[in-house]
């Protein structure tokens, strides 16, 4: 099991570290995680939540408010991030638990705000209504460390089996159609009146011109025939005057007839248009009365139905809130039990490592005691040899070198060094005392001391040979060669 590990979070993640040495929660992008500590990663990227919020205005008119919210952790505030890590991060942010939490906050604040406004206020102040909703929702989300990055409210729509917006559109369309019919009738009336007026004036002018033409013609004829016969002229003049009087009377009669006909037509048209206008006004009044009656009837039905639905929704919301509270309490209890279990495991692991460390320390202590005992035994061994040799340090040194095989190793190294060469060979002897095993000194030393003395006596010739062949002198601790006598 790893005692320590190094954790690194990605660009959109944070590390939440708890446990040994940390009072509450420590947030970091990278950190060492020691034994007895727990490290969890959580993502801080925002998430889109789409809702169909059902609300009701102050007139008890239900409507649906489609909305899309982009919500995520508040990364610029450490306290908000800690609240998010403690409350939201243990759950998947795309899970139903988080979505229900956000949806409950948004729906609750939207319903409370809509209940205090009329439908007309909601329509006229859509921007203000949106800002009010966002502000109140943000206040509730602060306790979870969340912030609204973006929000979009779509067009209000009718609830199923409720047609308020549909009737409102039909009313607007009907009013526009009625106004168009009135405008068409007025234009038609003005057109027909103008046509009749122009026709009468044309006839009046034609009759006047005809009369003037006939009078001028008769006058010219009378003047031409005046010289022929005065009587005939007077007779003709009288006839012309009579005819002119008759023509003038006929013209006046035609003008009067035209005026009377025009006035009659105008009166007929005005009467017909007045009847049509009055009919339209009466029909409009009837439609208004019918619409008013239908509206009151719908209001009564919708009010009773909305009251029942409101009570049902309140009970359902209370039950859902109670259920979510119990689920949240159960989840919190489970997390606390898991945390206690992890804490117990961490303490057990820490105790095990402590025992292992104590065991390793005890083994090192025993090993040091053994080395100390060996050193003390070697010290006793060296003191015993030194006492046996009468305090002669050089003899003890030589004995240790002989016992350790130092001279044999030197001889082997020299033999390997001159192998394949043609060295100068020197042969020497240590005398009959050592080689023969007898002599004057045999009664004073043992066999082992004789061997050691023989080897020691061989050293000067050996060192001399090495000096001759290599030019090297023995180290000072091995002795000093005297210059050979001339």
Automatic annotation (TrEMBL):
GO CC list: caveola
Keyword Membrane set for record: yes
CDD domains assigned: SPFH_flotillin
Domain (Band): residue spans on this chain: 35-187
Subcellular location: Cell membrane; Membrane, Caveola
Pfam families given in the database record: Band_7
Keywords: Cell membrane, Membrane
Family per record: Belongs to the band 7/mec-2 family. Flotillin subfamily.
Protein name: Flotillin-like
